[in-house]
Amino acid sequence: MELLRRLRIEPFILAILAAVVIAAFLPVSGGAATTLGWVTTIGIAVLFFLYGARLEPRELRAGLRHWRLHSIVLGATFILFPLLGLLGQWLLAPVLGASLAAGFLFLTLVPSTVQSSITFVAIARGHVSAAVVSASVSNLLGVFITPLLVFALMTTDGSVTITWGSVGKIALQLLLPFIVGQIFRDRILPITSKIKRLALFDKAVIVLIVYAAFSEGVAEGIWTMVGVPQVLGLVGACIVLLAVVLSLTELASRALGFDDRDKRVVQFCGSKKSLATGLPMAAVLFVGQPVGLLVLPLMIFHQIQLIVCAWLAGRYERAAGEPDAKVA
């Protein structure tokens, strides 16, 4: 651990990279994948239960009222990202081909992540209650906005079917545990306040999400469809995209006079794209299309955003003080 500190390497980042490498060589499949899915689902639910238990009700009410912050996050997710995606598609099509360039555009149209966005805000000592609202609203609205954006900005064959399944999943897996945590806060808080390394649970859930998502892609054989130069080109494009959005969201939140806690919400919630939401959407949006190629940019961006934001959250965490202090 001392060597890692001297090299300024976050153990959290190493854990994420290890999950990617293990998934590449030992992807989970079959019954094990089903079990991992349930473990991840339960872990996320517990995570949000603990968030609810740790947040004071007045913090949550303040988060709901923070309309300027939520507007910036939604604007970054559904306006800034798509504009950059259109530019990226135009630049990348001659180099990567039409399908991968279209996939790059698609990744910019999906909603923000929920669990990882809020987890990074919590790690970075940001305004967690506002993050819960921003990320959840983004994901819920994305069920409707993303198909409309796909119709408006992409050429697709087949039909789009919108169901309430994803909405129900968000409500049951994320919002309900959070509300229950709020209800039983007075009973749970004395227990959680005595657990000094509770932040490790937040990070462990993120590592599980990375392993599960990357395993799914490997099991589908997506890496056999493209060459190394194309993958490297996509990686470079995704890095540039994330850097631009992180910079612009930081500048916007600073220009609007947000405090540091709210800046973390704008940065982490406004710069994420959800693989968990994007993959199911792609399956129904692109019937008869090369879905594997269309979702590859999203898969790559998802891994990059987790690694970069893990580093960034750790940097903010160190600047804020004690790593395992309680997040309010």
Automatic annotation (TrEMBL):
Domain of life: Bacteria
Spans traversing the lipid bilayer: 12-30, 36-55, 67-84, 131-154, 166-184, 205-226, 232-253, 274-300
Organism taxonomic ancestry: Bacteria, Bacillati, Actinomycetota, Actinomycetes, Mycobacteriales
Alphabetical keyword list: Membrane, Transmembrane, Transmembrane helix
Protein's name in the database: Bile acid:sodium symporter family protein
Pfam families, per database record: SBF_like
Residues in coiled coil: none
Species this chain originates from: Dietzia aerolata
Signal peptide: none
InterPro entries found in the cross-reference section: Na+/solute_symporter_sf, Put_Na-Bile_cotransptr
